[in-house]
What we know:
Elements: H1 18-24, H2 28-38, E1 48-50, H3 65-77, H4 90-101, E2 113-116, H5 119-129, E3 136-141, H6 146-154, E4 157-164, E5 170-171, H7 173-179, E6 184-190, H8 202-215, E7 218-222, E8 247-252, E9 265-270, H9 275-278, H10 281-290, H11 297-309, H12 312-334, E10 339-340, E11 350-355, H13 366-377, E12 379-383, E13 392-396, H14 401-417
Parallel strand pairs: 1-12, 3-4, 3-6, 6-7, 7-8
Antiparallel strand pairs: 2-9, 4-5, 8-9, 10-11, 11-13, 12-13
Helix pairs in contact: 1-6, 3-11, 4-11, 5-6, 5-10, 12-14
Amino acid sequence: MEDNGGGEVAWRFGAANPSLEAASALSIRALVHRLYGCVDRNDPRPLAPLGHGDPSPFACFRAAAAAEEAVAAAATSGKYNSYPTAAGLTEACSAVAAYLSRYLPYELSTGDIVLTAGCNHAIEIMMAVLAMPGANVLLPRPGYPMYEARAALGGLEFRHYNLLPDKGWEVDIEGVEALADENTVAIVMVNPNNPCGSVYSYEHLTKIAETARKLGIMVICDEIYEHCTFGSKPFVPMGVFGEIAPVVTLGGISKRWMVPGWRLGWIAMTDPKGILRKKKILESIIIYRGISVDPAAIIQGAIPQIIANTDDVFFTNAMNTMREAAEICYQRLKCMECITCPHKPEGSMFVMVELDISYFNGIDDDIDFCTKLAKEECVVICPGSGLGMKNWLRVTFAVDPPLLEDGMERLKSFCLRHAKPTRNHATS
């Protein structure tokens, strides 16, 4: 390392990693974080956080006492202070396998499960494992941008297929077939769906599995919102169709147990024919886990009791509150002339709505809309541009219902205030 002649060292580091920059541009967290930075901290009104799916700060969505007690017992037992194995603690993997098997027509084994530090970590692993030279994966639009970000970081090509708003946000099967080629290795789907709030029927899931079989690709099904349903359609695990096509199921306790900060997720081989093992996918997952992070051993140690001791009443009450919140959100949005809601939410914690930019004076697009809304009304909503849908909005209703009512009223006031003079009388 040489002196440049002026007494200063010519440091050789500091150039930006182009892959990291490309991944960062796809980060929904960074976009929502910037919106929170726009909020006027002197505003006496409470912040209405309608931009991300974290219900845990609200008392009505408090974690089950049995789950908290299980973590406390694991922490004080002295048994979980060591490094866990690469796939996860055996008893924890066994408990997750038994839990998932309740809803499948076959039994999962302990060896079918790899524990992860949350579902985002599971996404990271799968995008890394599939990043072979020339390979591509099919991702939904709108979708959860962590898939794009992780694929970009690993140099994995991704192609977007559409979800169809006029068909309950179902997968565009014909579009999937048109996108795929000999280098396509997987299709990613999310059910119940973030960001759309849809829940896929048994019949539609069958079509997706049959399409994957026809194309010779695996299905990666993100089921972090498993059983978070409150409409007419029940949750059906994609693993049910593992006999048709191999399925990798991503999940965790973040959403159903209302504990996203506990960072415990899993990758499950819901593949009764063993195709994924033959293709060494499981082996690659465990290799990656061996050079990655571990979920906290204490949470792993608590998982058997978290699953065994959480009463069904907890889940029922949580979904009853979520149903109430979803209804409030949907009914209030329907009354706003500048917003179109193509499908009533039936699951997850979100709804996608279309924004009529022509309704407004001085608002350029969805990002401008959300930025000004945060500044003026202390309401944070996620712009659709961050999800591949310009001039749409993703609204989360996973907040305390009275605060949601207040946030919706502020959203309505904002829209009226910025409406063109010829239109601002029409919204009621």
